[in-house]
Amino acid sequence: MADNQLDLTSSPDDGAEPVRQPRPFVGVNFECCGVYQRVYINSAGTGYEGRCPRCLAQVRLAIGPGGTSARIFRAS
Fold it and tell me: CA 51 to CA 72: how far, in whole Å?
């Protein structure tokens, strides 16, 4: 039975999935329908874009110099 050994020290193979980083988001309270929704950064990295989950009102928040460090917003 000496041949039945489990090697737990080996590294994962090269086909392993890369570790995913969480997507940046801000919180938006849509006053139109009284709901909260996470709004994620766009693919270009220039702003946050999203919609109200009920009435589909659109919101866009630009990213730029002189901005704010706030993470939660109200959209009316």
Answer: 15
Q: Which residue type does 28 have?
A: V
Cα 65 from Cα 52, distance rounded (Å): 27
As beta bridge partners, residue 50 has 59
Q: Do the beta carbons of residue 28 and residue 39 sit within 8 Å?
A: yes
Whether the CB-CB separation of 61 and 48 falls below 8 Å is answered with yes
User: Which of 25, 35, 24 shows the shortest CA–CA distance to 75?
Assistant: 35
pTM here is 0.71
DSSP reduced 3-state for 73: strand
Q: Distance between CA 12 and CA 65 in Å, rounded?
A: 42
Q: What are phi and psi of 45, to 5 degrees?
A: 75, 20
Question: What tens digit of pLDDT does each residue of 15-28 get?
Answer: 677 888 999 999 99
